[in-house]
Structures are given as structure tokens and as C-alpha cells.
Amino acid sequence: MIGVKGKVTQPGPGLAKCDDEPDAKDLYIMNHPWSVYGVSNDILKQGMENLRKSLPERGWKILKDGETKSVARDPEILAENKKLRYAAHIVWMRTSASGRPMINVTVVSGCFRAPAGTDINKEY
Prior knowledge:
The chain contains one helix and eight strands; from the N terminus they run E-E-E-H-E-E-E-E-E. By secondary structure, the chain is mainly beta.
């Protein structure tokens, strides 16, 4: 949906216990942080515009489209897809700690129960 051809980080998704639910003993949450970088701020700006258009077209509701509260006041989008039970936090870091601009995306699932017999240490 970003529509930007750049480099993408590779760490992959992570799984954690879901602390949001009172009886969360066997509930989990998935999070997947990643970034696209290696392109100019002009291209990343277009990527943010692409997201503003394509997220709603694909069933995502944009909850916030503004700036972070950081000193940098980076543009950010917070969106959710209730049908899929995912939320996304997207920040265009015009100048990151590494010195290169990037769009940082974190996708988080709602709490879910792994199917019986699933070894969460081996499967996602």
C-alpha cells in the first residue's frame, strides 16, 4: 500500500502474551515492526500519500493523521482494521537516528488464542 521501492528491514513478526485481557493466560498478541528506507524524503512523502488513499480503500479506518508529539513532529498515521483485528502505527521519520529517512510501520494484532496443540515457540 505504501507503493515505495526501497530497502525493507527483515526482523519479522513477534509474539507476546496479551496483557490486555483479565484471563490472558493463553492469549497472545502479534506485532510486526518494519521500515522502508534507502529512498529520498520526496519518495517517502509520496508513500505516506499512497497510504492515506489506499488504507481506507482496503478496509482500514484512519484514526489519526497528523504529527508525532516528538521534537521532530514527524508525520504519523494510526489506522485500524476491525474486521481483521489489526492496528497499524506508521511514522515517516524524515531524519532518523541513523541519519537516513524512513517510514516506520508497526502492525499489532488483537488478542488471540493459539489453536490447541500449536507450539508458539515454533509457529506464528
